[in-house]
């Protein structure tokens, strides 16, 4: 009979990330066969009944949302500085959601929220390539030639990045600013900002417009919608490629 660590079982059920599951265990929110368990080394089998906040794992309904994250919101479940987090926008959702990946505090745009741990881990794993489309307002008036290093695959902090789609959408010569579109599939910290700064065009404002087939059409900052079954299947297929 296979045994697995309790926090891994909770994460696999989609209740929370493994790290957050550990926090819930030590906080006394988890029971095994009706008994509160606080020991992180605890192992369980498929015959044990695990519950989080009194709700058995089997009854946790998997949820998938596309969220339009506003600026000045933390991509986290909690924040020790009392700033707004992405989970504050889902008060009606009973399940414990968490973000797939992250967006910077001052970056707005598309973010997937779910309680399906396997789905989240699949989308975030470095070997999976799902395009993410960003639109940035930058200082300066870049030409196509100046953005070519991004299309060829620029090296940042000693790491060669994959080639990106990069093009200028518009230029404001009076204000000496431009709107640039960038499509990448990696997810390094501050990657888009670092890429554009590296070619001489610091970012003033940044938004993620799309994740794979998911676009923000019809949503305003702070809004969300459920993913369709077709979208979930398509994301899985894209990740598996």
Automatic annotation (TrEMBL):
One of its GO terms (biological process) is enzyme-directed rRNA pseudouridine synthesis. SMART domains: S4. Coiled coil: none annotated. Its EC number is 5.4.99.-. GO terms for molecular function: RNA binding; rRNA pseudouridine synthase activity. Residues 4-61 form the RNA-binding S4 domain. Gene3D superfamilies: Alpha-L RNA-binding motif (3.30.70.1560), Pseudouridine synthase I, catalytic domain, N-terminal subdomain (3.30.70.580), RNA-binding S4 domain (3.10.290.10). InterPro entries: PsdUridine_s_RsuA/RluB/E/F_cat, PsdUridine_synth_cat_dom_sf, PsdUridine_synth_RsuA/RluA, PsdUridine_synth_RsuA/RluB/E/F, PsdUridine_synth_RsuA/RluB_CS, RsuA_PseudoU_synthase, S4_RNA-bd, S4_RNA-bd_sf. It is an enzyme of class 5 (isomerase). The keyword RNA-binding applies. Keywords: Isomerase, RNA-binding. This is Pseudouridine synthase.
């Amino acid at each position: 009979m296979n045994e697995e660590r309790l926090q891994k079982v909770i994460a696999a059920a989609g209740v929370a990330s493994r790290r957050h599951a550990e926090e819930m265990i030590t906080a006394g929110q988890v029971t095994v066969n009706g008994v509160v368990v606080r020991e992180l080394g605890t192992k369980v089998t498929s015959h044990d009944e695990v519950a989080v906040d009194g709700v058995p794992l089997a009854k946790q309904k998997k949820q998938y949302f596309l969220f339009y994250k506003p600026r000045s919101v933390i991509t986290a479940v909690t924040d020790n500085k009392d700033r707004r987090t992405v989970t504050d926008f889902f008060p009606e959702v009973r399940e414990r959601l968490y973000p797939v990946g992250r967006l910077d505090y001052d970056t707005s745009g598309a973010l997937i929220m779910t309680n399906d741990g396997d789905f989240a881990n699949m989308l975030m794993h470095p070997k999976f390539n799902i395009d993410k489309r960003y639109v940035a307002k930058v200082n300066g008036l870049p030409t196509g030639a100046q953005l070519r290093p991004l299309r060829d695959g620029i090296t940042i902090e000693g790491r060669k990045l994959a080639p990106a789609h990069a093009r200028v959408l518009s230029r404001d010569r009076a204000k000496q600013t431009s709107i640039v579109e960038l499509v990448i599939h990696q997810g390094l910290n501050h990657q888009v900002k670092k890429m554009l700064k590296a070619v001489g065009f610091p970012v003033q404002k940044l938004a993620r417009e799309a994740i794979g087939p998911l676009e923000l059409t019809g949503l305003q900052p702070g809004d969300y919608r459920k993913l369709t079954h077709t979208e979930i299947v398509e994301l899985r297929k894209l990740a598996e490629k």
